[in-house]
């Protein structure tokens, strides 16, 4: 089950650690949504193919593309280097949608005050990271995640590293942040 918390300022130790503040500052999924626009759905990994929940979500949101990825030391050549690449702060022109089937990892997103929020995902967690938000990903110390990726239309995985403040998707994201995600939804 997903958990989210504000990260510490420690940039020296391993990115795969939890990086809690002292004392820890957890936030609820409602707070996560209102502060970042990140959406969360809980799916059943054993029945998702037939229970209709994922199908309804795909239909509602227009996801027409999907594939499956595995990140692990065995599956990724130059694993440690890849980890650092994933961890570069970036944004996309489209939503980043991930449904975790097995394993675990962390998605870090910036809130409106530029603070890092760490989102711990594991099997059954589906998160939708809005277009235009600065974020990054890392495996955790278990070094294994298997996830489905979704996309509306032809997939574009291109990351734009920070700074990308002049991009239209960034401006649109900031407008939603100012207006409030609850009303913009
Ligand atoms: Fe990304």
From TrEMBL:
<feature type="binding site">
    <location>
        <position position="90"/>
    </location>
    <ligand>
        <name>Fe(2+)</name>
    </ligand>
</feature>
<keyword id="KW-0560">Oxidoreductase</keyword>
<feature type="binding site">
    <location>
        <position position="92"/>
    </location>
    <ligand>
        <name>Fe(2+)</name>
    </ligand>
</feature>
<keyword id="KW-0963">Cytoplasm</keyword>
<keyword id="KW-0479">Metal-binding</keyword>
<keyword id="KW-0408">Iron</keyword>
<feature type="binding site">
    <location>
        <position position="92"/>
    </location>
    <ligand>
        <name>Ni(2+)</name>
    </ligand>
</feature>
<feature type="binding site">
    <location>
        <position position="96"/>
    </location>
    <ligand>
        <name>Ni(2+)</name>
    </ligand>
</feature>
<dbReference type="GO" id="GO:0019509">
    <property type="term" value="P:L-methionine salvage from methylthioadenosine"/>
</dbReference>
<dbReference type="InterPro" id="IPR011051">
    <property type="entry name" value="RmlC_Cupin_sf"/>
</dbReference>
<keyword id="KW-0539">Nucleus</keyword>
<keyword id="KW-0223">Dioxygenase</keyword>
<feature type="binding site">
    <location>
        <position position="96"/>
    </location>
    <ligand>
        <name>Fe(2+)</name>
    </ligand>
</feature>
<dbReference type="GO" id="GO:0016151">
    <property type="term" value="F:nickel cation binding"/>
</dbReference>
<dbReference type="GO" id="GO:0010308">
    <property type="term" value="F:acireductone dioxygenase (Ni2+-requiring) activity"/>
</dbReference>
<dbReference type="InterPro" id="IPR027496">
    <property type="entry name" value="ARD_euk"/>
</dbReference>
<comment type="function">
    <text>Catalyzes 2 different reactions between oxygen and the acireductone 1,2-dihydroxy-3-keto-5-methylthiopentene (DHK-MTPene) depending upon the metal bound in the active site. Fe-containing acireductone dioxygenase (Fe-ARD) produces formate and 2-keto-4-methylthiobutyrate (KMTB), the alpha-ketoacid precursor of methionine in the methionine recycle pathway. Ni-containing acireductone dioxygenase (Ni-ARD) produces methylthiopropionate, carbon monoxide and formate, and does not lie on the methionine recycle pathway.</text>
</comment>
<feature type="binding site">
    <location>
        <position position="135"/>
    </location>
    <ligand>
        <name>Ni(2+)</name>
    </ligand>
</feature>
<keyword id="KW-0486">Methionine biosynthesis</keyword>
<dbReference type="GO" id="GO:0010309">
    <property type="term" value="F:acireductone dioxygenase [iron(II)-requiring] activity"/>
</dbReference>
<comment type="similarity">
    <text>Belongs to the acireductone dioxygenase (ARD) family.</text>
</comment>
<dbReference type="GO" id="GO:0005886">
    <property type="term" value="C:plasma membrane"/>
</dbReference>
<dbReference type="Pfam" id="PF03079">
    <property type="entry name" value="ARD"/>
</dbReference>
<keyword id="KW-0028">Amino-acid biosynthesis</keyword>
<dbReference type="GO" id="GO:0005506">
    <property type="term" value="F:iron ion binding"/>
</dbReference>
<feature type="binding site">
    <location>
        <position position="135"/>
    </location>
    <ligand>
        <name>Fe(2+)</name>
    </ligand>
</feature>
<keyword id="KW-0533">Nickel</keyword>
<protein>
    <recommendedName>
        <fullName>Acireductone dioxygenase</fullName>
        <ecNumber>1.13.11.54</ecNumber>
        <ecNumber>1.13.11.53</ecNumber>
    </recommendedName>
</protein>
<dbReference type="GO" id="GO:0005634">
    <property type="term" value="C:nucleus"/>
</dbReference>
<dbReference type="InterPro" id="IPR004313">
    <property type="entry name" value="ARD"/>
</dbReference>
<comment type="pathway">
    <text>Amino-acid biosynthesis; L-methionine biosynthesis via salvage pathway; L-methionine from S-methyl-5-thio-alpha-D-ribose 1-phosphate: step 5/6.</text>
</comment>
<dbReference type="GO" id="GO:0005737">
    <property type="term" value="C:cytoplasm"/>
</dbReference>
<feature type="binding site">
    <location>
        <position position="90"/>
    </location>
    <ligand>
        <name>Ni(2+)</name>
    </ligand>
</feature>
<dbReference type="InterPro" id="IPR014710">
    <property type="entry name" value="RmlC-like_jellyroll"/>
</dbReference>
């Amino acid at each position: 089950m997903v958990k989210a918390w504000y990260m510490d300022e420690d940039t020296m130790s391993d990115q795969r650690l939890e990086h809690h503040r002292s004392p820890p500052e957890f936030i609820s999924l409602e707070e996560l949504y209102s502060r970042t626009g990140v959406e969360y759905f809980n799916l059943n990994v054993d029945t998702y193919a037939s229970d209709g929940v994922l199908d309804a979500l795909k239909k509602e949101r227009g996801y027409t593309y999907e594939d499956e990825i595995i990140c692990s030391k065995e599956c990724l050549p130059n694993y440690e280097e890849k980890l650092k690449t994933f961890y570069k702060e970036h944004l996309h022109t489209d939503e980043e949608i991930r449904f975790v089937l097995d394993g675990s990892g962390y998605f870090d997103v910036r809130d409106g005050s530029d603070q890092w929020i760490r989102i711990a995902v594991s099997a059954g967690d589906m998160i939708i990271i809005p277009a235009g938000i600065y974020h990054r990903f890392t495996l955790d110390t278990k070094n294994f995640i298997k996830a489905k990726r979704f996309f509306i239309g032809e997939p574009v995985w291109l990351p734009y590293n920070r700074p990308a403040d002049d991009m239209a998707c960034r401006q649109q994201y900031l407008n939603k942040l100012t207006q409030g995600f609850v009303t913009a939804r």
